[in-house]
Amino acid sequence: MARHIGILSGLPVEVPAATTNRLCGSGFQAVVNAAHEIKLGEANVVLTGGSDCLSITPCLDAGAFSAEIAPMELPGRKRGSAPEVFEQDEHARPQSTLESLAKLQAVFSKGGQVTAGNASGICDGAAANVVVSEAALEKYGIQPLAKVLSYHVVGVEPSLMGIGPVEAIRGALAKAGLTIAEIDLFDVGLLTIAILAIQLARC
Hints:
Blueprint: H1 2-8, H2 26-39, E1 45-52, E2 72-74, E3 84-86, H3 98-102, E4 125-132, H4 134-140, E5 146-153, H5 164-176, E6 193-199
Antiparallel strand pairs: 1-4, 2-3, 5-6
């Protein structure tokens, strides 16, 4: 996939590409791989990305991520129908209430905690970003949005669904010398990898 994206994005043919698979943590792993390449002096600018069909991000209907979704025109669902513009995550369900979610049956085990209301939805998504070295910032006059401080990958008991971020975040915090109280916002999925990045003020 990565090679196709690079070529179709107009990157020179000689620019290499690699696809990695860490399930729903693949996009985060791509950023870690980019940081490794930069630290080793193998690259100064790395295009990273991730794609998935199991997004569980809630409340996108509130418009909080509208600036992060690039609207695109898609063919109509029925033959001959007008094209549709995709500009809002398809997984948001603003009509959900705590009461309606509480009525949903557990899907994996009797009395379990995973239901159709808190499990991954079957929908598609993709994102990309550019990770650069300090030298590239200066050379190209790039205004950074964030700085990667640390990352941590951990294995957890597979029967405990959703517990991965707990230990991954603890490890990333320890590596950065930070406490949970010093973090304003966590972007958490069902991951066993965590990346701590500080958002930089835009000038």
